[in-house]
């Protein structure tokens, strides 16, 4: 008995750290499923894994999610011409393969007024590192001129006229009149684009070079359409371009005369790469949040800062916001129906040291509160989308590793509002709405706020069009809610939107799809 007791004591002592870690994990798992915990922090669930190397993700007007991989950052796939796209149905939790006619890897995308997705650019050739190059020099990725539209009805890609300039890592933004602007990227020789701007016409499905618009941006610049029609460059970007702070100056770009109004005040402006940008809700307030970020290139520098700018001010300037819990690159940021913002994932280094943390920003108090911790690390090549049921779906991640690992599991976050009681049910709403008009919706509960949220199209920490627009309530009685639709097309561009009715407890309805024409 003495010998056995000594043996057991030695086993426990030798495995103490493991036992403590196991116990801690078990307690965390138990705690995360407690009702009070979920009401304040929400809950994460891993719901699927179909093996798709999603580089781009877009929520379609059908409620399905387009996961675009192309060659998926895999040289072997590229050499074999193995380009893939998957269509995920979040309700049925099923995946459908979509024929992909070109390497969509690292293209740009934006929604057209009819809800179709325009995708332009892609990969012509993979990079060659200096150690593998015949001339001893590094050769960068090279861009394509290919341009396609994805049609959610047919669930197929449709060819358009080509871009004028080949692009890899470009940004696309849709303007109030439906025209799409394309900027930046690496060209067919792997050189940074020197300010060539081109415009896409949905009517003719053609691209036209705009010789009077010249603006050099780093690749994947974060651009947002402001209420006055200008494009706001937050200063955030991903990938390539000059390292000098002056060449990454935030500001408002006027497409009427090619002028650029600098926006100063961004803290730590030298580490603005792989940062997040979000137009805070409601969009009428014109406040933009800059989130975290890192050093230029493959440096390990990262930041926990946030900063906020009011674009409606005569001289907009950033002011410091609350810090995140941890410094990180590649933060995922999604605006929610109750006007809060989920900020999740990221890593403390360049494609490494994933941060399994999440928090929720509250614009009314300018503060963060903790959210439940995700189970899956997300850094480079990850995407975040708000779903019509009010949850947030997260895809991808491609940390540096010897075998070029790619995370293919889908994790879904259920925000705290989904654990706070019965949800409003919208029983009637117009399918088509017009700017400047009054509309009526019928809700099972009184509405505290009603929001139109544009679906996201996310890649490389960039989602140029995600926005939540308030529909002011003018009257409600007997379950009918009368709402005003904003007149400004820069604020509310034509597209399909998710209409959410939120009650006074902050609980949103399941979204109803409506088209703003």
TrEMBL record:
Annotated CDD domains: E_set_GO_C
UniProt organism field: Protofrankia coriariae
Tree of life domain: Bacteria
Protein name (Swiss-Prot/TrEMBL): Galactose oxidase
Keywords associated with the record: Signal
Signal peptide range in chain numbering: 1-19
Domain Galactose oxidase-like Early set: 423-516
Listed InterPro entries: Gal_Oxase/kelch_b-propeller, Gal_Oxidase_central_sf, GO-like_E_set, Ig-like_fold, Ig_E-set
């Amino acid at each position: 008995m003495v010998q056995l007791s000594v043996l057991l004591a030695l086993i426990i002592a030798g495995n103490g750290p493991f036992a403590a870690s196991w116990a801690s994990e078990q307690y965390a798992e138990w705690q995360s499923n407690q009702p009070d915990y979920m009401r304040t922090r929400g809950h994460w669930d891993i719901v699927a894994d179909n093996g798709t190397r999603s580089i781009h993700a877009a929520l379609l007007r059908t409620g399905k999610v387009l996961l675009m991989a192309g060659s998926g950052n895999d040289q072997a796939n590229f050499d074999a011409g193995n380009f893939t796209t998957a269509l995920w149905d979040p309700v049925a939790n099923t995946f459908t393969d979509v024929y992909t006619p070109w390497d969509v890897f690292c293209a740009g995308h934006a929604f057209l007024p009819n809800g179709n997705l325009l995708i332009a650019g892609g990969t012509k050739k993979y990079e060659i590192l200096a150690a593998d190059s015949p001339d001893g020099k590094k050769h960068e990725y090279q861009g394509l001129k290919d341009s396609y539209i994805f049609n959610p009805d047919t669930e197929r890609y449709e060819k358009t006229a080509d871009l004028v300039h080949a692009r890899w890592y470009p940004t696309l933004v849709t303007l109030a009149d439906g025209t799409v602007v394309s900027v930046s990227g690496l060209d067919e020789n792997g050189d940074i684009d020197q300010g060539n701007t081109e415009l896409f016409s949905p009517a003719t499905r053609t691209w036209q070079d705009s010789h009077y618009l010249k603006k050099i941006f780093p690749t994947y610049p974060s651009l947002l359409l402001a209420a006055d029609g200008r494009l706001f460059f937050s200063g955030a970007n991903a990938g390539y371009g000059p390292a000098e702070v002056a060449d990454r100056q935030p500001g408002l770009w006027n497409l009427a005369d090619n002028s650029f109004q600098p926006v100063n005040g961004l803290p730590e402006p030298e580490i603005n790469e792989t940062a997040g940008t979000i137009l805070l809700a409601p969009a009428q307030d014109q406040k933009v949040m800059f989130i975290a970020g890192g050093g230029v290139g493959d440096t390990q520098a990262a930041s926990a800062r946030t900063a906020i700018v009011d674009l409606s001010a005569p001289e907009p300037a950033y002011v410091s916001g609350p810090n995140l819990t941890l410094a990180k690159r590649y933060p995922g940021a999604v605006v929610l129906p109750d006007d809060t913002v989920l900020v999740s994932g990221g890593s403390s280094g360049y494609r490494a040291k994933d941060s399994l943390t999440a928090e929720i920003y509250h614009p009314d108090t300018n503060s963060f509160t903790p959210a439940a911790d995700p189970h899956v690390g997300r850094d480079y090549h990850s995407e975040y989308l708000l779903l019509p049921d009010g949850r947030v779906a997260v895809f991808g991640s491609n940390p540096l590793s010897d075998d070029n690992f790619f995370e293919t599991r889908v994790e879904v976050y259920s925000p705290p509002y989904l654990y706070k009681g019965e949800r409003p049910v919208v029983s009637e709403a117009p399918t088509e709405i017009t700017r400047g008009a009054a509309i009526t919706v019928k809700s099972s509960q009184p509405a505290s706020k009603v929001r139109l949220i544009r679906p996201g199209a996310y890649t490389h920490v960039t989602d140029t069009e995600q926005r939540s627009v308030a529909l002011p309530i003018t009257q409600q009685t007997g379950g009918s809610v009368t709402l005003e639709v904003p007149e400004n097309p820069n604020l509310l561009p034509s597209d399909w939107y998710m209409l959410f009715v939120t009650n006074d407890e902050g609980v949103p309805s399941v979204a109803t799809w409506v088209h703003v024409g």
